[in-house]
Amino acid sequence: MKLKIGYLYPDLLEVYSDRGNVTVLQKRSEWRGIECQVDRITIGDQRDLSDYDLLFSGGGEDREQLLVAEDLLRKRESLFQAVASGTVVFTICGSYQLLGHYFETIGGKKIEGVGLLDLYTIGGSKRLVGNSVCETELVGKVHTLVGYENHSGRTYLGDSTPALASVVAGQGNNGGDGKEGAAKGSVFGTYLHGPILSKNPFFADHLLQLALARRTDKPVLPLLDDTWEMAAHTHIVQQYSGVSRR
Ligand SMILES: NC(=O)CC[C@H](N)C(=O)O
Description:
This protein is an alpha/beta fold. Helix content is 27%, strand content 33%. The protein has one domain (2-239): Class I glutamine amidotransferase (GATase) domain (Rossmann fold, 3-Layer(aba) Sandwich), CATH 3.40.50.880. The strands form two sheets. The protein has a six-stranded mixed β-sheet. The structure holds glutamine. Glutamine is lined by residues 15, 59-62, 65, 93-94, 150-153. Glutamine (GLN) binds next to helix 2 and strand 8.
């Protein structure tokens, strides 16, 4: 079995080691004997995105987002078809914002998003920066998610868009409503860098499980030794234990 990952805009959207998420997904597949192919896809590439089991994209600055947004609109149809075929889409910060309707930057530019998720983003003058601890429910089990955020954008979810997590400590989507990220079907967005998947291995496996479901019925992922990953996770959680939201 082979897992195919499409890494969107690695040359333009890559802050705080977001690319590490791709390494985590690749390694956690290979350690289980699942071959994993990673294709880098950037501006001008016209591949069929439905070819991929998982599409990943990272965060970036407003300037890079402007460049990417134009191209992403050209890939819009292919992206929607991929999602309809079950492809998992996992996006961080700048690319998460571009999945919504628009991102109005602090510089006054309105960047059009692809509208895959019902949300919009408005830039604020004070950046929302720091470590974050959140709670998320994955397949009926509650987990803490930890990561690092740094964004000017405040994202507001439409009623039909569930949050990925609720904020325990940190700012989340907009520093106000206690929601972090978005998760709708196989489409995920989060403000958490870290890279997030290195510190939250159960979330990496959740995404792998969904992506592999395109290849095989009920994929089973054997357990891995996550001692180091969970030590990094717990280190952040302990710093914020006893802290109530914000
Ligand atoms: N870290 C990021 O990806 C930042 C995204 C966007 N430029 C913002 O500041 O909100």
